[in-house]
Design a protein that fits this description.
Helix content: 25-40%
Number of strands: 14
Distance between the termini: 45 Å
Structural class: alpha+beta
Strand order of the largest sheet: 3-5-7-6-11-12-10-9-8
Shape: globular
Largest sheet: 9 strands, antiparallel
Strand content: 15-25%
Number of helices: 7
Order of helices and strands: EEEEEHEEHHEEEHEHEEEHH
């Protein structure tokens, strides 16, 4: 079963992919499917002895370019459609025990190029409306494969949260004639919530942080997607991201779990819609202190109203101090 069903009570689509119940679940390191295929060892997803970046189709996708017909017939109230789209896996090191925080600026720079390359390729599919690269890291956020990796989903529509961003950006533009994220960058630059100041990217705890130690990375220039970044901007993104991630580990004192997502402009839409998008990354660790996790409870799950335990100004100062002191591998 792989299909999308429309929720008329929230004006959004929900995807059902029952094949994902069979996906690999917490294998031992010796049986990791993302490690290189070593001579005499088991065959893995990556048939090479060594690699830097590997990208391939997910074996257990939520969306596919040849989805089966839906199991359920839709109705006028609840339409049902095939789950069209793309799901790719991005593995950014052949070292099983590494993390994105430890691989160094050079490898992250290569990853930025890989993200941009795959974004452009997936956006070229006219059936795609939104491309979302992301990384889920650590058991605290439900990761079932420990080898460092991320994913890229390409959706047939704009998912609910990016769609809300687009509507908010349109409202702000109608009122002011400006980009809301550009205004955020101007307000936050040099302020108490800044974590890392880059030439092309600014990293800080947003004033509205939904997680106690959330950090957003905003493009200083009005850039909609990763492929639009020039070499200098990609260099800066790699440096800023490396310092933020290393700072997390230094601050918490352990390998930080987090959700990282890259928000971009929609694709295959009108120029006006695309112009509203502004490239930014969101990093949301579930940690709120030593041995304490931030769970999504009733207010967040049912109300969509987030409650946080640490003031963004305090979080920004703490993470800035950690990022300033940490040594980041080249």
């Amino acid at each position: 079963m792989s299909e999308r069903r429309y929720d008329p009570t929230h004006d959004e689509w929900v995807t059902f992919a029952t094949n994902r119940q069979e996906r690999t679940y917490k294998p031992p390191a010796a049986a990791c499917p993302l490690c290189p295929t070593r001579p005499g060892g088991p065959e893995t997803e990556i048939p090479r002895e060594h690699y830097e970046i590997a990208v391939f189709d997910n074996r257990f996708p939520s969306l596919s370019t040849d989805p089966p017909a839906p199991d359920l017939a839709g109705t006028d109230l609840v339409p049902v459609e095939p789950a069209y789209g793309h799901c790719e896996v991005v593995v950014f090191t052949d070292e099983h025990e590494a993390t994105l925080a430890s691989v160094g600026v050079g490898r992250i720079r290569l990853l930025v190029d890989a993200w941009a390359h795959r974004f452009a390729a997936l956006a070229a599919d006219p059936g795609v409306a939104y491309v979302l690269p992301f990384e889920n890291k650590g058991e605290a956020v439900g990761v079932t494969l420990h080898h460092p990796h991320g994913q890229i989903y390409a959706y047939p529509d704009v998912p609910p949260r990016p769609a809300r961003e687009q509507r908010a950006a349109a409202k702000h533009c109608d009122r002011t004639g400006r980009c809301v994220f550009c205004d955020v960058v101007v307000q936050e630059s040099g302020g108490p919530r800044v974590v890392v100041e880059g030439t092309h990217f600014l990293a800080g705890v947003p004033p509205w942080a939904r997680f106690p130690y959330e950090v957003d990375l905003w493009s200083r220039g009005h850039v909609g997607t990763l492929p639009e970044l020039d070499g200098a901007a990609r260099d800066d993104l790699a440096r800023v991201l490396a310092r933020v991630l290393a700072g997390y580990d230094a601050f918490f004192g352990f390998r930080t779990s987090y959700l990282l997502g890259i928000h971009s402009a929609p694709v295959n839409v009108s120029d006006d819609e695309r112009a509203l998008g502004h490239l930014h990354l969101e990093i949301c660790p579930p940690h709120r202190g030593e041995g304490k996790l931030k769970y999504l409870a009733g207010s967040e799950t049912f109300g969509g109203a987030f409650l946080t335990d640490v003031a963004p100004e305090v979080a920004g100062a703490r993470l800035r101090a950690a990022a300033d002191d940490v040594a980041v591998p080249a």
